[in-house]
């Protein structure tokens, strides 16, 4: 007797990302939730954005601005971005051909990589690095070339970068202010990078999402300020980081017209465009530059509050020159590996952190963990009260 039942099964799939599993950010956030720990692991604020920004978006919705915008972004927003960048960094990007609004910085980065990296191309990443870089390169068929930043200081090792460049090198990814180390590239380092890349055809993907979080009176050194870098660069930034709205997932990319044209070919087929009312709201809100001009002082105060409390523990603080992260050396507190220490800290002390080893391909452990201080003052004080036990 034969059965008419279909063969119900899921065909096997050969994974394109065999090394990717559940991220440490998901693991630590889940553990923080389970244990009631203060979550200083994931990098997002626990406070609200400016109500005026919400009102600007609400007004755009009420005005009926709810249908598809142009693929590259609402013209008024691209014009506002261009004006901001020219004022701050001295380079004028054409809003029509050189500014593209994206669905967050992460989408911008993978789109840039997919636009220019072909199978067999090499892409240099400086470790420790943001966790999307390597999978993005692998999805494009590229070969990841890992170059470590100097352990301890996390400064670029230009000798190592120069040695990594080959005829197959297509691009290099640079991030300043840096996640996770909170270091900021200097003018001298940007000039050295410009000099190093000048005789090559290597493209630059410059991740500048923390551009408005540089402290102690130092300016952000954007690739846009260096003609030799700007001419070969995709420069990525994030409204989510700047305006405390990470869940809105809106960013942008600056690039010369020829590079932008290739970027938009991919952009139009992976997201097509970005939600309309938020773009109009951001354009209106950007008319007042104070929110981003005042951001360094806002986060420096939080950094200083957090560091003052950490000074009363046995954790050894590393510099926090920019971003909203603080790294600490745990050597005087524990013999555990970074990942095990973070789990212990969450369960036993009630504060969640992220191991720096999670930002290295080989899990390099240097006894350093990262905290995020983009939190309400009361959240930071609660965490510091618990960390005072150390």
Report on this model:
The protein has 390 residues and is α/β, with parallel strands linked by helices. The protein has two domains: 24-44 and 294-387, Aspartate Aminotransferase, domain 1 (Alpha-Beta Complex), CATH 3.90.1150.10; 51-289, Type I PLP-dependent aspartate aminotransferase-like (Major domain) (Aspartate Aminotransferase, domain 2). It is 39% helix and 14% strand. The protein has 15 helices and 13 strands. The protein has helices at residues 24-35, 51-62, 75-89, 104-116, 133-139, 158-164, 187-197, 227-230, 239-242, 257-270, 276-285, 290-293, 295-310, 338-349, 377-387; strands at 38-39, 99-102, 122-127, 143-148, 169-175, 203-207, 233-238, 251-254, 316-317, 325-329, 351-352, 354-355, 368-372. It has a seven-stranded mixed β-sheet, with helices on both faces. The protein has a four-stranded antiparallel β-sheet with strand order 9-10-13-12. The chain has a two-stranded parallel sheet with strand order 1-11. A hairpin with a 7-residue loop joins strand 9 and strand 10 (325-329). The longest helix has 16 residues, at 295-310. The radius of gyration is 22 Å and the shape is globular. 46% of the residues are buried. The mean pLDDT is 96.
